[in-house]
Write a structure and sequence with these properties.
7-stranded mixed sheet, Glycerol-3-phosphate (1)-acyltransferase, alpha/beta, single chain, globular
Length: 224
């Protein structure tokens, strides 16, 4: 989906697009303490400002953007190579298609840095936090294992990583990323949503994780 199509989709669904906050107003409210955070420490207005500003650094093309839900929960299982740019790149792609702010797991549990990233939508790689976000209707990105030397191979995916999606009964969307850390233009591909199994035993969880990883690999094998 190109920028024109994305803009048309958001315009057709105004209830899903947040009003773009003013930078000066945002700064003023933070200096005066007039802003809210959710139970996970998320500052929605600040995150909106950050994702809008990210357009200076990245230009993102989204393939399969119509598969992203404009409301309601979903888990995005994201392929990563180096893993530095992917969270911001995918967050920008999701926002330009849906107007929604992506919540990103894998936050380092480090004082000060943790608090800052939480303001922008980051959460710990913790099943309880991810489960809570999904049940609250959020879009949550879960990064796969590192693949610094093999960009076309989906990384490791622990079965425990998909357990929150099973417990909350929400779909997982495979996501492949194409770009370089020093480049400006990135492309992300969104695969068909994979529904969680009705049974939550160990075998069902492992099979579900394998299906999700296969979905990511399929995108990497058939780039567009």
């Amino acid at each position: 989906m190109n920028a024109k199509d994305a803009a048309a989709r958001i315009a057709a669904e105004p209830e899903n697009a947040k009003e773009t906050p003013s930078l000066l107003d945002g700064i003023r409210r933070r200096l005066s303490g007039e802003f809210d955070v959710d139970p996970w420490g998320f500052d929605e207005e600040l995150a909106q400002l950050a994702v809008n500003a990210s357009g200076v650094r990245w230009a993102v093309d989204v393939i399969g953007g119509a598969r992203l839900p404009t409301k309601g929960p979903a888990m995005l299982m994201v392929h990563r190579r180096i893993g530095v740019s992917e969270p911001s790149v995918v967050a920008k792609g999701v926002h330009q298609v849906t107007g929604r702010v992506l919540r990103i797991s894998g936050l380092p549990d480090v004082p000060v840095a943790s608090s800052i990233f939480r303001r922008l939508g980051g959460v710990l790689d913790d099943a309880g936090e991810i489960d809570g976000l999904l049940r609250a209707g959020e879009l949550v990105m879960v990064p796969m294992g590192w693949q610094p030397l093999h960009a076309s191979i989906a990384g490791q995916l622990r079965s425990a990583a998909v357990q929150p999606a099973i417990d909350a009964g929400v779909p997982v969307l495979p996501v492949a990323t194409f770009g370089s850390e020093v480049g400006r233009r990135w492309r992300i591909m969104i695969g068909e949503p994979i529904q969680p199994p009705k049974r939550a035993d160990k075998i069902g969880t492992v099979e579900f994780a394998e299906a999700v990883r296969a979905g990511v690999q399929h995108l990497l094998d058939h780039p567009r």
